[in-house]
Design goal:
425 residues; 4-stranded antiparallel sheet; alpha+beta; single chain; 10 strands
């Protein structure tokens, strides 16, 4: 009932190629062009990025999350997890491999629910790496609770008219189109009364109020928009999937995405652990190496154990998805790795940052992005608390209350039961 830790030799060779390619070709982009992975390409950067993407295509590794019919390899979640572990150590790598969020999730749902015309207009440019997209779901007043969404889409003749506000719509600033979740029938349950729409970013009535940045980013560097949909009119064929299917579509999008996020964090946390071990061996204080201090050894051991356990849990979750082809069946474990993701990154990155002293908190080391990333991961795709509730509820479904006054493992009661079991002997 588990993964046997082996993949085919051919796939292992692909993983080794990805490791080398990331280290030798993509990490230079991280150093020379930080923060530009989701920006439009200029004459200087464009030729470089396109050549790197072509090398990935030549290896058959472009957009590997998609099926062969869409130009991917149909690797499955387990192999994707191993790929994303390597890509996670670089901010540019997901873009170069066509696996960057939110484009990956958007491509998956268009591929599954889109019409042929929608696939040609929206999916194909994503697959070719020609554009960015945005998933516009969260609202200012609702936070993580979609049942409180108020953005409306009303049918008027052959059109839908969208009105409302959406918050933290990532990549809206550079997106060619947005996927909007809106209430289409307020008289039924929110789970049945919301729909998804494909909306070009330049549609009249789509107004970017402001672009929020993450902690540490400048006021003009933000990529997460507050969008006002002020009577944005789109044709009837902008509906993605059937009317009222928004929740089903969103869950399809988020299930695999949480595994991808988790394994990218494994890659980041491993990088932090590597830096921590190097620092421990490199610095001396009070007559000995940091590596010889017991508290440092304890931090190293805790980090290694925590990261290894988490990695195996994520891989096991990915393996289950491949085995059962049913995200609902694996929902408990998907939710568990979701709330563990920020904790593991926080713990390992903090220990490593702290061991580097003043240099660790400076802008000459990469810990700032990791530190911010841990905070971000605790709220994206729903806050950790929501996923803990999901795990607890699903876990409790496998149990029953004690049938009587005492717990079933009450020792005096168990001894009385044991005596009766052996009376005939």
């Amino acid at each position: 009932m588990g993964w046997d830790f082996r993949t085919e030799p051919e796939f292992e060779e692909k993983l080794e190629w990805i490791r080398h390619f990331r280290a030798e070709r993509i990490e230079p982009l991280d150093l020379l062009y930080p923060g530009r992975a989701f920006q439009p390409l200029d004459d200087e950067l464009g030729p470089v990025v396109r050549k790197l993407k072509q090398q990935v295509r030549d290896q058959g590794l472009w957009a590997p999350h998609l099926g062969p019919e869409l130009g991917g390899r149909g690797f499955g979640q387990l192999k994707l997890a191993l790929i994303n572990e390597i890509l996670g150590a670089s901010s540019w790598a997901p873009v170069i491999f066509g696996t960057a969020a939110p484009d990956t999730g958007n491509a998956e749902i268009i591929a599954r629910y889109g019409t042929d015309e929608q696939k040609e207009r929206y999916l194909q440019p994503l697959l070719e790496g020609e554009c960015f997209s945005c998933f516009s779901m969260t609202e200012p007043q609702a936070g993580a609770d979609p049942t409180l969404f108020t953005t409306r889409a009303v049918r008027e003749g052959d059109d839908w008219v969208i009105t409302g506000s959406k918050f933290f719509s990532s990549n809206a600033r550079t997106s060619r189109f947005v996927i909007v979740m809106a209430v289409t029938n307020p008289d039924v349950s929110p789970y049945k009364g919301m729909s998804m729409f494909l909306v070009p970013s330049d549609t009249p009535g789509v107004r970017m109020e402001r672009n929020l940045g993450l902690m540490g980013e400048g006021p003009d560097d933000g990529m997460h928009a507050l969008i006002e949909y002020d009577g944005a009119r789109v044709p009837a064929d902008a509906l993605l999937g059937g009317e009222g299917q928004a929740f089903a579509i969103a869950q399809t999008r988020l299930g695999g995405g949480r595994v991808h996020h988790a394994m990218r964090v494994v890659g980041q946390a491993q990088r932090a652990l590597d830096m921590m071990a190097e620092r421990a061996l490199s610095r001396e204080t009070q007559g000995g190496r940091l590596a010889d201090k017991q508290l440092v050894q304890a931090d190293l051991a805790d980090s290694y154990a925590e990261l290894t356990q988490f990695r195996l849990f994520v891989l096991y979750t990915a393996w289950q998805i491949d085995q059962y082809q049913d995200y609902k069946r694996v929902r408990k474990d998907i939710a568990a790795i979701k709330f563990l993701t920020p904790k593991v990154l926080h713990d390992v990155a903090y220990r490593s940052m702290h061991l580097h002293g003043a240099l660790g908190v400076s802008n000459e080391m990469p810990f700032g992005d990791m530190w911010t990333g841990a905070a971000v991961m605790s709220v994206v795709d729903g806050p950790s608390e929501v996923h803990k509730v999901t795990v607890a509820r699903d876990l409790l479904r496998g149990y029953e209350p004690a049938p009587g006054l005492w717990p079933t493992q009450h020792l005096p009661s168990r001894k009385e039961w044991a005596r009766k079991q052996l009376e005939d002997l």
